[in-house]
Amino acid sequence: MVENWAVQDARDVQDARDKQEMGRRDRKKAATRRDLLRSAARMFAERGYQETTVKDIAAAAGVTERTFFRYFPSKEDLVFAEILDFVPPLKEEIARRPADEPPYAAVLGGLLAAAERLDGGLGILFVGVPPRAMSTGPRRGGVLAGFEDGIAEALAGRLARRSPDEPARSRALRASVLARASVAAVRGALIAFTTREDGPTDPPPSVEDFAGLLHEAFAVLSSGGE
C-alpha cells in the first residue's frame, strides 16, 4: 500500500513538472509570435509591406527565418493572422458601444477602440499594408469572410436588443449587409491611405491620418453616399 502511494506521489510530481514545462513552452511560443507581429507592424509602417522581407521581420524579432516559418507560412499569412486575432476584441468593443448608437457609428467606434488594444496601436491591420497586396491567394476569401462575420455577429446582437420583435431572419440579413458595407468602408480608407501621393515637404503619414480617413469613409456610408 505504501509503495503504491509512493508511486502515485512520484507520478503526480512528474505530471506537475510536465505541465509546468508545457506552460513555459507555450508562453515562450506566444511571446515569439507576439514579437514577430510587433516587428512586422513596425517595419510595414516604416518601410511599407512590399519592401519588408521575411528575413527583415525575423531579424527584427531576434529569430531566424526558419523560426518565422514555424509560426507563419508566409508574410501574407502573418497579416491574415493579425486580422483574425483582431476579430474577438472588435466584437467585444462593438457590443460595448452605447445601445442607442447607429450601427455604422458602433462599428467605427468599435474598430478604433479595438485597435488601441493591439500591440503597436493600429498594427498590421491598418498601417502600411496595401489592400491589393492581399488581393490573391487561397486564404484571402476565408479571412475577409471571418472578419465580416465577426462584425455581423456583433451587430446582430445589438439589433436583437434594439429591435427584439424583428424576425431573426431579417435581423441576420440586415447585420450581414451592414457588416460587409463596413468592411468595404475600411478597405476604401486603406486604399486611400496607401495610395496617397505625398509631396517632398509633407510629413510622413500617421495613424491619425488613417483614423481620419476611416471617419470620412463611414460618413459616406451613413449619408447613403450623398
From TrEMBL:
Residues 30-90 form the HTH tetR-type domain. Residues 9-24 have a biased composition (Basic and acidic residues). Residues 1-30 are annotated as: Disordered. It comes from the Bacteria. Keywords: DNA-binding, Transcription, Transcription regulation. GO terms for molecular function: DNA-binding transcription factor activity; transcription cis-regulatory region binding. SUPFAM superfamilies: Homeodomain-like. Residues 53-72 bind DNA. PANTHER family: HTH-TYPE TRANSCRIPTIONAL REGULATOR RUTR (PTHR30055), MYCOFACTOCIN BIOSYNTHESIS TRANSCRIPTIONAL REGULATOR MFTR-RELATED (PTHR30055:SF238). This is HTH-type transcriptional repressor KstR2. The gene is kstR2_1.
